[in-house]
Amino acid sequence: MPAESNYQGLGQYSMEKSEARRKRSKYIVIGSVIGLLVLIAAGVAIGITVSKNNKSSGSSSSGSSKPVSDDTTSSGDPSNFKKDPRLYKSFYGMAYTPEGSLLPQCGNSLENVIKDIQLLSQLTTRVRLYGADCNQTALVLEAIKQTKVDMEVFVGNYVVPTDNAPYIRQRDTIKKAIETYGTDHIGGVTVGNEFMLNYLTERGAIDANGPIAAEGAQILIANIQDTRSMLAGMNLKKTIPVGNSDAGSFFNKEVLGAIDYGLSNVHAWFANTTAEGAAEWVTTFFEETNVQPAALLPNKPKMYIAETGWPTKSSDLGNANNGAADASIAGLQTFLDTFVCQANKNGIPYFYFEFFDEEWKVRPVL
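== glucan endo-1,3-beta-D-glucosidase ==
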């Protein structure tokens, strides 16, 4: 599905994760590739393009028409919605942020989240969130309740190294959401997103287990332990796993030793590989850099790929490609055709990056 300059269809994704990250450049390190990258916008034509590999009847993907499932029936019951016949549950999981979930505007809404969940439920049974501000945890859980879909949510708490107030605010918001909706649809609570990546690069360091990393790890581990204590004190009917998300090369061993699961961002495009070789690169990198080291730890945290995808376009012409890694719709299609099918077959847990274009992260919804 073409989705380049005008953000149509199920197209382009943005690498921005928060308002704070848009205000600064950062170093991205994946494997041995180190370089200063410009924040990019890229495409993820999801669902329809993968579905054609699962069922021949689902090959129609022309144009940028609004998905059939975008509207509820005239009854007004969100659980009785029209299904898009082109879509199938092709993905293990999907990275998701409700549109407008940025402070201070908080332009998200239950109506829009319900529409998203209706559509997401036709693509996957799992989503991961990045943070809890703007009441997004409760909005997603309420949307699942109203749509009555099979969906597991990994909720998130975005940790800021220099200010613990955002962590506490989001922790309390998550607690309230769990008290309201219970644990049936919660797969885990993720504390921190690319915390170690940001902590190290802001201090000119790259060693995830060096002395500078040890300082940052203690901040993050304190919040992880605090989240465990909060959940333990709630007397829940099931134990909720507590995890952490970071760039693939930036998992600190002490942090890994303190969590139940890790979410690893692995983007082959940053490694200067071709679209044809991207699926193999992602799988090998994830296995060697994340899965194998985690398996050696006493707690053996389960590792997931938190983000992976392929860009169709860069917002900066100077970064239209990374060596052999060309940003293109054809490259995206190749990656979808190879990685998704291989990962599903081999049982690799992943969250595809990502659900919708997120132009609003650059120009927030008011």
